[in-house]
Amino acid sequence: MTHTKKQFDVIVIGAGFAGMYAVYRLRKLGFSVQAIEAGGDVGGTWYWNRYPGARCDVHSLEYSYQFSEELQQEWNWSEKYAAQSEILDYARHVADRFDLRKNIQFNTRIQAMLFNEASCIWELTTQDGEEFQARHCIMATGCLSMNNVPDFQGLESFKGEVFHTGNWPHEGVDFSGKRVGIIGTGSSAIQAIPIIAEEAGSLTVFQRTAGFSVPAQNEAMDKTYEAQIKFRYQKFRQENFNRFAALNNNPNPISALGISDEEREATFEGRWQTGGLSFLASFNDLATNIDANRTASEFVHKKIHQIIDDPKIADLLCPPTILGCKRLCVDTGYYKTFNRTNVKLIDVSANPIEKVTTHGIKTNAEEYDLDILILATGFDAMTGALLSIDIQGVDGLTLQEKWQGGPKNYLGLSVSGFPNFFTITGPGSPSVLANMIVAIEQHVDWIADCLIYLRENSLSRIEAQQHDEEQWVELVNQIAGQTLYADGCNSWYTGANIPGKSRVFMPYLGFPSYVEKCKSVAANNYTGFKLN
Ligand code: NAP
């Protein structure tokens, strides 16, 4: 079958929150823009991750767009932390409200992208052989969108059902009376386990490394609080924009070590009762001082022992690692689920999984018969989705070759050797260590300004300079090196969760300083870029 090549000024790959806003913004500026989305509708991560209990751990009034005052005033969230279905409804509402779907092609996966140097045009091919051309490409492919399915021997032979939390069936899963096994104890598992345990006949949790979790203390939206925020929404957004993670997490500007044990305990207790990620901001040195961090981890260990009836299970659930080094989880009733008689915790660091059999899981100590196996095994984060596309820049250089030793780019936005190619919330930008929607809007706005600059100055090509790219990578690493997070654990922030992936701390720490750098580059006629 022959296809004609569809041509656009800009092609956006992905129609999650990043792709949707890019379509909205660029279309309004008069660019012809097309988004290509693998899923059947908008929503990105919230389209795919429909496992029971999936919920955001950033406050609803903050985890939402701010580009439209009418939108943020008129949309009402029902809970402090919105559930996946409500966030997906919100995404659909935004798509309807701004008529975005007319510029999005769904159920289409980009397979290859090639930069044609002579014409200065990107040529894109889908899995079905459809072809597109665009002057610029914007990768809105998401940070946690490439599922990690570990290479368990025998997985295909399992006779029951297998699900990955990151690709959950739309019709849901019936657990009633079933023997369910779940591998993993990260954020996804920690949300799913309490709910599945209530429905399943039995639930066996295969834990390799215990994860730290704090209670969400989720509740119905406080209407008075909502009214107060909406009364001063723009100012509230601006205040958050200037915060370290673009979040209102009430940072306590003192050390955990300079106060009495009672005062420290009271602070942690207050944060525990408030719930959520603000626990990380209990003191200003939890991310940088191992002794300060130990006070936080000891507090959580004590809580786990208070909640769990069996001290041996409590010991197994106490993470031996640095709190916050792997992303802190936020739960509703996670720890107490292990007091249920139908829930079993299996330590697969002591007794590794040998294989998946036709009937369940075999560790080197025992066999577990299962009807349903859930892989809550996370993602090839930040680079996985980008590297799953065969992207070829100048002189035949592929992104896979360029990033063999870890991702290299400038401002987390642009890769030398890949002109007119932008990544939204890519490695080297605050991304997952900031409020993602704020980070997305900042990136899209920066790219939109850049495209206007090119248009106004009759320029057709922009590309990061290698020297500036190298300096940027060094800076990102240098900042991360000041924390306990860079080398303190095997986190997905560093790629250490994927066998064979280069170990590099990927996110840029500190949203405000990052924004300043982006602004200064633009204000200085895109210093660090080659333009022509
Ligand atoms: P994750 O945090 O990477 O957790 C994956 C889990 O699977 C870990 O416990 C890991 O153990 C385990 N695992 C992986 N391979 C394994 C193997 N071969 N054998 C045994 N265990 C294995 O993934 P996630 O829970 O999907 O979360 C990823 C990120 O998504 C989160 O950190 C968060 O940023 C985001 N997320 C957010 C929310 C929210 O907003 N509330 C909810 C869900 C996800 P090890 O630790 O030993 O590697």
The overall pLDDT average reads 97
Q: Point out poorly predicted stretches.
A: none
Instruction: Report the strand count.
Output: 21
Bound molecules: NADP nicotinamide-adenine-dinucleotide phosphate
- Reported by name, the CATH topology of the largest domain is FAD/NAD(P)-binding domain
**Name given to the CATH architecture of the largest domain:** 3-Layer(bba) Sandwich
- Number of separate structural domains: 2
Percent of residues in beta strands? 15-25%
Largest sheet: number of strands, sense, barrel closure: 9 strands, mixed
The radius of gyration over CA amounts to 23 Å
Helix content: 25-40%
Computed structural class: alpha/beta
Query: What general outline do the C-alpha atoms trace?
Result: globular
The number of distinct helices, counting runs of at least 4 residues, comes to 15
Which homologous superfamily in CATH is the superfamily of the largest domain? FAD/NAD(P)-binding domain
First and last CA, distance: 37 Å
Organism: SAR86 cluster bacterium
Pfam family, one: Pyr_redox_3
Keywords: FAD, Flavoprotein, Membrane, Monooxygenase, NADP, Oxidoreductase, Transmembrane, Transmembrane helix
GO molecular function, one term: monooxygenase activity
